[in-house]
């Protein structure tokens, strides 16, 4: 018989079943041993003979026994299987557990992060973490399915690619076969997704792995995942926003999320600053916070450019002219400001066709109508002080693509980690990621980064130059 | 009005429609210009006035016009929209195409690979490539959905991780914040997926991006994608094979693939060598080859270990004892040979609980029942000559995980690139990947790998040591 713990009905009474799972709790009562056996579907009480006292908590066992009705006074109304118990005839230890390095019967918040993540395979057994990971999976499924239904094509883009000028530092990968040269890991599939519009796919999406070498924050690692989409021939920015809103609502509803306003309110950037003091804001009432409501809103009408902030190294590097982009250099301005961009006038006043999706005080998505003419994209980089050689080197392939019949297009990237975090009522991104990095950039469970051998360094034609201690 | 080219019915006749798409072909007939307008759904003939003669092939245009019935003698029965034409009233150029660097009205096989991939955004406009990319998307959708339906949880695993001893070279990523240390990009999520079994998810899958620094072959780049899955408590290797077979059949059938034998034949490794001379073989008849049939088969009973082949650098590095694994060091032997492994006897005769899925002469998947006890995994690495320090350093975290209650488990990795290639009748993996690498390891479209700045090298505490020319 296959394993199951879906014994909440009484129709299995009398059957002999074979169950497999973890020893959730154990209670020795003289000659009898009571085990709560746990698997992914729940727990069930097993009553066994004395020898079962040998079992250690969290060991994996197989139990063969008869399903019995509990006496009336022993029924546990709080458990889905509380009306029955398994009268154990035999059992086998499939995977013994020794002493546990971290407790898993708490919510985990009392444990140092390094320890939680070193033993993540245990940490994930918490009911809360099981739920978080499963909700994220269902959210991914629902978002993907909503897009497939609307004829979006799921297309993978390269992981070993080129620096894409998106404002943050790249992680680089030495190319063994081409000494001295490096791939960059993608900060986002921005350019590839636009090229897929040039290629005529019209509707693209991807659950995209993105990697940025940014300074770590307590709740953020180097990796993140975005639900990335792009579409051709949008009537306006509003038509992309409308499609995204429909998809988000469908997906969030299907995984049980409750949303506040429908349609999502649209707030202009100046209005957001005035009313909320920031371009990310929380529209929930106290009561809605308690009820786990998600309050989505759109923010539009951002300035395209801003004066370079000298504190931001990555921006300064790209911003010799004193101007840099606020959101995305590949955006178009709003239609009314296209001439300004072409003429490089009123630079600080040019409004980008960008739209951010915010939820409960977080930015959960950002997108725009893109520039799709060589002239516009060139003007953006010229305003940021790029020479024509640098423009060719950086985005020459995009300019070429825009010269072979590229349709108007726009899209968005939704932060899957953040959406999953908000849906599960968490406040740290790490609680919605199975194996997040530690705050010091270590990979969960495994000791990475790690040294590599001299032979590997030689093969890569590299030498390390360590700072003096 | 929204765009559409689904005008194959005559119910639109008389309507004024707005269409957007690419100029597929253009014919000037004196005062009239005939345009075949193409979008993702097909083409439709547009008849316009002389000025449309300005349009260049592959330009993106918007057309407003009336749908008219064609005269009987002008009906094109070979086109889905051949009974109608659009009488153009006005048109706009949305994205002008200049001269095209590569032709796209051929199948592309006459064009040098470097050119095809440099201009991939054009190359992908070929009908064949459009179909290939869309079939791959539908295959991914169908495989994922078949697994979601069976309660598999979609879980992402890290891209920045640690070397995982899987036989090939790792790509490494210098850690700026931890000078001298490197992450490795994942060759597969093997260890993480096993740890998810320890974590109690019981059923995991992922469309996993994998990256290996292997010497390039004409049809293979450094990146590949696998449909990766793992499940706990399999009754036997056959029960995993059965589930995988069901999922593959369901997905392949749903995207229109035709399969040969049902159930898939199971061939032992010795039998395969004897009958076909290899562990990958093609069971199709000539007629089935013409009909695009997929002939799947399982291969089982591989030896666990083999003598190290001195030509394989990566294997020699791991094989000080003279033995290395044939498939996967994390596998279990078949139940009958577990004692041999523990006792390190009959090493060359130990059979692994590995199963390969082959199709039309290619290996399209490989998996196994895993070792889930510290004792077995340790014995495997000891046989391969690892010292106890090296074992702790390499897989100590796995041994620890096996000591906190790990269930028996097994799984498989299906090669999504290969499955998509076979489904679309292609013979090169590159035809089933949107942006594959060139044979010399260059990223499609973008000039990567590329030099990085001295400043970036300094930040990474690295220096390049180029070979003398």
Q: How would you summarize the topology of this molecule?
A:
Two copies of one chain form a homodimer.
Chain A lengths: L15 E14 L2 E8 L2 E8 L10 E10 L14 E12 L17 H6 L1 H4 L3 H23 L3 E2 L17 E3 L7 E3 L5 H9 L4 E9 L11 E10 L4 H18 L3 E2 L6 E3 H8 L9 H5 L2 E2 L1 E5 L4 E3 L5 H6 L4 E3 L12 H6 L10 E6 L2 E8 L4 H10 L4 H14 L7 E7 H8 L30 H6 L2 E3 L5
Parallel strand pairs in A: 3-5, 6-9, 11-13, 12-14
Antiparallel strand pairs in A: 1-2, 1-4, 2-3, 4-5, 7-8, 9-10, 10-19, 14-17, 15-16, 17-18, 18-19
Helix pairs in contact in A: 3-5, 3-12, 10-11
Question: What does the model show?
Answer:
The structure is a homodimer of 469-residue chains. With 469 residues, chain A is α+β, with helices and mostly antiparallel strands. Chain A folds into two domains: 6-95, OB fold (Dihydrolipoamide Acetyltransferase, E2P), CATH 2.40.50.140; 125-432, Bira Bifunctional Protein, Domain 2 (BirA Bifunctional Protein, domain 2). Chain A is 26% helix and 26% strand. The first copy, chain A, has 13 helices and 20 strands. In chain A, the strands form five sheets. In chain A, strands 6-9-10-19-18-17-14-12 form an eight-stranded mixed sheet, with helices on both faces. In chain A, strands 1-2-3-5-4 form a five-stranded mixed β-barrel. In chain A, strands 7-8 form a two-stranded antiparallel sheet. In chain A, a hairpin with a 2-residue loop joins strand 2 (32-39) and strand 3 (42-49). The radius of gyration of chain A is 27 Å and the shape is elongated. The model of chain A has no long low-confidence stretch (mean pLDDT 92). Chains A and B meet through strand 1, helix 2, helix 3, strand 6 and strand 7 of A and strand 1, helix 2, helix 3, strand 6 and strand 7 of B. Strand 20 (462-464) of chain A pairs antiparallel with strand 20 of chain B, so a sheet runs across the interface.
């Amino acid at each position: 018989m296959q394993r199951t713990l879906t014994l909440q009905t009484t129709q299995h009474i009398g059957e002999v079943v074979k169950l497999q799972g973890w020893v959730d709790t154990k209670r020795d009562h003289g000659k009898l041993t009571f085990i709560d056996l746990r698997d992914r579907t729940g727990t069930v009480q097993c009553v066994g003979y004395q020898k079962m006292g040998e079992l250690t908590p969290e060991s994996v066992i197989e139990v063969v026994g008869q399903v019995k009705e509990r006496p009336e006074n022993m029924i546990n109304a709080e458990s889905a299987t509380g009306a029955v118990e398994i009268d154990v005839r035999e059992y086998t230890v499939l995977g013994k557990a020794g002493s546990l390095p971290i407790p898993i019967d708490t919510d985990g918040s009392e444990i140092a992060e390094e320890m939680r993540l070193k033993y993540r395979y245990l940490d994930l057994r918490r009911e809360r973490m099981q739920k978080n990971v499963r909700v994220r999976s269902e959210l991914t499924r629902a978002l993907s399915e909503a897009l497939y239904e609307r004829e979006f094509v799921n297309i993978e883009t390269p992981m070993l690619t080129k620096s894409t000028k998106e404002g943050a530092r790249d992680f680089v990968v030495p190319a063994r076969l081409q000494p001295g040269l490096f791939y960059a890991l993608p900060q986002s599939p921005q350019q590839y997704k636009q090229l897929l519009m040039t290629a005529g796919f019209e509707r693209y999406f991807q659950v995209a792995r993105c990697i940025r070498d940014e300074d770590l924050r307590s709740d953020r690692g180097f990796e993140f995942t975005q639900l990335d989409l792009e579409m051709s021939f949008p009537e306006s920015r509003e038509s992309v926003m409308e499609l995204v809103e429909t998809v988000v609502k469908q997906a969030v509803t299907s995984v049980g999320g409750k949303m506040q306003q429908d349609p999502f309110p649209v707030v202009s950037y100046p209005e957001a600053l005035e009313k909320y003091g920031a371009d990310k804001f929380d529209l929930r009432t106290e009561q809605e916070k308690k009820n786990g409501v998600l309050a989505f809103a759109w923010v539009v009408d951002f300035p395209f450019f801003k004066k370079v902030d000298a504190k931001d190294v990555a921006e300064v590097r790209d911003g010799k002219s004193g101007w840099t982009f606020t959101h995305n250099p590949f955006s178009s301005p709003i239609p009314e400001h296209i001439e300004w961009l072409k003429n490089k006038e009123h630079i600080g006043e040019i409004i980008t066709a960008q739209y951010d999706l915010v939820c409960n005080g977080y930015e959960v998505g950002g997108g725009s109508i893109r520039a799709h003419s060589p002239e516009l994209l060139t003007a953006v980089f010229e305003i940021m002080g790029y020479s024509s050689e640098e423009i060719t080197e950086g985005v020459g392939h995009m300019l070429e693509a825009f010269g072979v019949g590229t349709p108007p297009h726009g899209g968005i990237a939704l932060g899957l980690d953040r959406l999953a975090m908000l849906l599960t009522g968490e406040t740290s991104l790490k609680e919605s990621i199975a194996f997040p990095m530690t705050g010091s950039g270590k990979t969960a469970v495994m000791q990475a980064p790690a040294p590599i051998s001299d032979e590997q360094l030689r093969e890569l034609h590299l030498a390390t130059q360590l700072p003096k201690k």
